[in-house]
């Protein structure tokens, strides 16, 4: 099923919808009422809600933060490989490549 989010706000209102009629009728009533200050609303709202993260979630967050600080590419290793390829001293270990490929397939 495909949902076209670009058309959500541009869709014509449903005919016979009580919501659109109620909004039009309530519009005149809300215009007469004074507007509330957002600061007053947030100050008077109760703030008894809290969030508690599990030990695993906290550990995952720490790991995620430490990985974000790591460089995406080991520039020293890349430079070593480029030099080895340029000198002709880089040798491909076909057995190692094959075993890594098999391990990747086994994990799927």
UniProtKB/TrEMBL annotation:
<feature type="domain" description="Anti-sigma-28 factor FlgM C-terminal">
    <location>
        <begin position="50"/>
        <end position="103"/>
    </location>
</feature>
<comment type="function">
    <text>Responsible for the coupling of flagellin expression to flagellar assembly by preventing expression of the flagellin genes when a component of the middle class of proteins is defective. It negatively regulates flagellar genes by inhibiting the activity of FliA by directly binding to FliA.</text>
</comment>
<feature type="region of interest" description="Disordered">
    <location>
        <begin position="1"/>
        <end position="75"/>
    </location>
</feature>
<comment type="similarity">
    <text>Belongs to the FlgM family.</text>
</comment>
<dbReference type="Pfam" id="PF04316">
    <property type="entry name" value="FlgM"/>
</dbReference>
<keyword id="KW-0804">Transcription</keyword>
<dbReference type="GO" id="GO:0044781">
    <property type="term" value="P:bacterial-type flagellum organization"/>
</dbReference>
<dbReference type="GO" id="GO:0045892">
    <property type="term" value="P:negative regulation of DNA-templated transcription"/>
</dbReference>
<keyword id="KW-0969">Cilium</keyword>
<dbReference type="InterPro" id="IPR031316">
    <property type="entry name" value="FlgM_C"/>
</dbReference>
<feature type="compositionally biased region" description="Basic and acidic residues">
    <location>
        <begin position="65"/>
        <end position="75"/>
    </location>
</feature>
<dbReference type="InterPro" id="IPR035890">
    <property type="entry name" value="Anti-sigma-28_factor_FlgM_sf"/>
</dbReference>
<keyword id="KW-0805">Transcription regulation</keyword>
<feature type="compositionally biased region" description="Polar residues">
    <location>
        <begin position="15"/>
        <end position="31"/>
    </location>
</feature>
<feature type="compositionally biased region" description="Polar residues">
    <location>
        <begin position="38"/>
        <end position="64"/>
    </location>
</feature>
<keyword id="KW-0678">Repressor</keyword>
<keyword id="KW-0966">Cell projection</keyword>
<dbReference type="InterPro" id="IPR007412">
    <property type="entry name" value="FlgM"/>
</dbReference>
<keyword id="KW-0282">Flagellum</keyword>
<protein>
    <recommendedName>
        <fullName>Negative regulator of flagellin synthesis</fullName>
    </recommendedName>
</protein>
<keyword id="KW-1005">Bacterial flagellum biogenesis</keyword>
């Amino acid at each position: 099923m495909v949902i076209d989010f670009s058309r959500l706000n541009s869709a014509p209102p449903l005919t016979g919808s009580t919501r659109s009629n109620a909004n039009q009728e309530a519009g005149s009533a809300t215009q007469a009422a004074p507007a509330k200050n957002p600061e007053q609303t947030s100050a008077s709202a109760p703030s008894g809600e809290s969030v508690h993260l599990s030990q695993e979630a906290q550990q995952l967050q720490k790991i995620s933060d430490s990985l974000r600080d790591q460089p995406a590419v080991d520039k020293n290793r890349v430079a070593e490989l480029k030099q080895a390829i340029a000198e002709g001293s880089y040798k491909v270990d076909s057995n190692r490549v094959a075993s890594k490929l098999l391990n990747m397939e086994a994990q799927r």
